[in-house]
Amino acid sequence: MLTVPWAAVIGSPIAHSLSPVIHRAAWECLGLAGDWEYRSAEVDRGGLGAFIAGLDPQCRGLSVTMPCKQAVMPLMDVVDPLAAAVGAVNTVVPGAGVLTGFNTDVHGITTAIAEARAARGLGPARSACVLGARATASSALAALGALGVTRTTVVARRFSGPGSVVAAAARMGVGIDQVLIGDTTRAGAALAADIVVSTLPAGAADPLAALVRPGGHQCLLDVVYAPRDTALRRAFEAGGAVIAEGTEMLIHQGAQQVRLMTGRDPDTGVMRAALEAEVASREGR
């Protein structure tokens, strides 16, 4: 049994997760590495209830990934208003016997895009496009609202089902235009937006790359960071668009999780160096 304060990333499959890398780096720079333990746990929807019910008093927090971001919400005692509006919890923080669910993906997406656009000197964005319609797409929608975008086009294979971005948009009072991914004319027009966020899994956005006619005013955030060199990214880079790295989203959402779990501010530079080294190792560089 663990006798030290601990946290973990949970989801399924979990072996590929980079959360342990960035959290352990953060804890080390905060002087907590010898006293805290961060691990990973393979937890699917079926085992989620038992896992949450079995948390011991030493647990300081959970990083929640797919497929548990929505399934974990009913198991919380309190859900932060932002996470409730988005419809997804990616962070669980126990305190005084109360489990509180947060969403730090919104912070990660907002910060990654804002920093990339500022580095290029781009002004306020007027239009946006989100590829995908599930949990991360809903977080992207909230992030775009924080960046001043009032209406977004969402391109997806389907919009129905639990956890849809359509329901999240209604809760947030945000207008969206829905475009089916097979409608190449409208999808191509949507991809001309000032900000494009792809929340699709690796390879799923490749067919859309042929529709891209990018310009230097555009910014792409592709949440896929392994492999980083996606067809969609290549298409936008070829037209001079600025790229907001998916790894930057991961770092900033992770840093926010560390703040919630420890009450302390981590060094994102240390987290970034550890993440880049791990990604390079996995890519054989």
Name of the CATH first level of the largest domain: Alpha Beta
- Taking pLDDT < 50 over at least 5 consecutive residues as the criterion, the unreliable ranges are none
Number of domains: 2
CATH topological fold name of the largest domain: Rossmann fold
Broad structural category:
alpha/beta
**Cα-to-Cα separation, first versus last residue:** 38 Å
Helix share, percent: 25-40%
Mind describing the biggest β-sheet? 6 strands, mixed
CA-atom Rg in angstroms: 19 Å
Counting DSSP E segments of at least 2 residues, the number of strands comes to 12
* The CATH fourth-level homologous superfamily of the largest domain: NAD(P)-binding Rossmann-like Domain
Q: Helices and strands in order, then pairings?
A:
Layout: E1 6-11, H1 19-29, E2 37-42, H2 45-53, E3 59-64, E4 78-79, H3 81-86, E5 91-95, E6 98-102, H4 105-120, E7 128-131, H5 135-146, E8 151-156, H6 165-172, E9 175-180, H7 184-190, E10 195-198, E11 219-222, H8 231-238, E12 242-244, H9 246-262, H10 268-282
Parallel strand pairs: 1-2, 1-3, 4-6, 7-8, 7-10, 8-9, 10-11, 11-12
Antiparallel strand pairs: 3-5, 5-6
Helix pairs in contact: 1-9, 1-10, 4-5, 4-9, 5-6, 9-10
